[in-house]
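dumping this here so i dont lose it
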């Protein structure tokens, strides 16, 4: 039996693993895909302290994993299929078997929201993307659109402007939500055009994206633009499907914890983007992971587990 099983290998999970392993707890971290979660989709991180020059999210993720391993954390690639959390001994069922643990730290993060348009699923991977860093290079010399007005949309637009001939940002309001530095970089980039007060009504194309049908939300005027790709950056939603009927969630589906990362089930903690919190950044995910690890350690010692 493990002392701690951590579900999810983003900054919250790796930091939790580093802290529990360093506290000499038997630590297993399970990640189903690639290291870093959403962080890995960021090309240049310039607001994680300690790196004067920007570092890529995947590089930072790989360093975090190695650092946790150095203290003895076991990190495996497997998909968690089910969780039984209510007993003192928790069971984590995966595609390859089952694990048992005294404590569980939920770090599954969040995933990009979809627009919900009829053509979106059909053209996903054929011009519709949710990750500019992953797919941007396929659009070298071509025209693309980015939907959204937050940090992700601005970062994506700036990244895509490096190799696309033109980037059109389509935003439903008349002001961006992103931090000012990103806004200024977007406004001063000659390859980026912003279409304000506009919603995407449809994605045009059969085998691949050929354009977008737009509607100005103030005037009601409809129009079309020709693009070869559309990057959807309209926010994130928590990955709580495994625990939604077990732990307390808020109205938006995020896990509710106290400041100790304690969920509604004793011995079960949540850290990072999956939990209700005011600021979702790599640094706050890492901070959550450290607190959750500390509380898991206390839970084990105080209950003589
Ligand atoms: P976000 O901040 O929630 O912004 C989502 C954007 O998409 C908003 O501009 C929103 O419009 C728009 N939007 C939402 N639903 C829409 C819909 N159905 N149709 C059209 N537009 C829609 O999401 P995010 O940019 O992905 O950022 C998520 C979190 O990660 C934030 O906390 C952000 O600060 C953080 N983040 C930080 C960094 C960084 O620090 N470098 C980088 C990326 C992300 P409205 O403005 O009208 O609401």
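and the seq i came up w/
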């Amino acid at each position: 039996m493990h002392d701690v099983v951590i579900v999810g290998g983003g900054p919250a999970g790796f930091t939790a693993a580093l802290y529990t392993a360093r506290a000499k707890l038997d630590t297993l971290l399970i990640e189903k895909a690639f290291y870093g979660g959403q962080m890995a989709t960021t090309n240049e991180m310039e607001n994680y302290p300690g790196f004067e020059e920007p570092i890529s999210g995947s590089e930072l993720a790989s360093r975090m994993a190695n650092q946790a391993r150095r203290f003895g954390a076991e990190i495996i690639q497997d998909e968690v299929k089910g969780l039984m959390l209510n007993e003192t001994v928790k069971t984590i069922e995966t595609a390859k078997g089952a694990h048992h643990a005294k404590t569980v730290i939920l770090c599954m993060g969040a995933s990009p929201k979809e627009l919900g348009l009829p053509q979106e699923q059909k053209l996903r991977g054929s011009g519709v993307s949710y990750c500019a860093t992953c797919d941007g290079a396929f659009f070298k010399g071509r025209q693309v659109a980015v939907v959204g007005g937050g940090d992700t949309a601005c970062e994506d637009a700036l990244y895509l402007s490096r190799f696309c001939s033109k980037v059109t940002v389509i935003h439903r309001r008349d002001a961006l939500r992103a931090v000012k530095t990103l806004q200024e970089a977007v406004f001063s980039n000659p390859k980026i055009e912003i279409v304000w007060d506009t919603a995407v009504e449809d994605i045009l194309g059969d085998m691949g994206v050929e354009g977008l049908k737009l509607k100005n939300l103030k005037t009601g005027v409809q129009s079309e633009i020709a693009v070869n790709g559309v990057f959807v950056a309209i926010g994130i939603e928590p990955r709580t499907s495994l625990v939604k009927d077990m732990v307390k969630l808020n109205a938006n589906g995020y896990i509710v914890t106290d400041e100790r990362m304690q969920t509604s089930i004793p011995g079960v903690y949540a850290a990072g983007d999956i939990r209700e919190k005011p600021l979702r950044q790599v640094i706050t995910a890492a901070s959550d992971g450290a607190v959750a690890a500390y509380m898991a350690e206390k839970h084990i010692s105080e209950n003589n587990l």
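The first strand starts at residue 2 and ends at 7.
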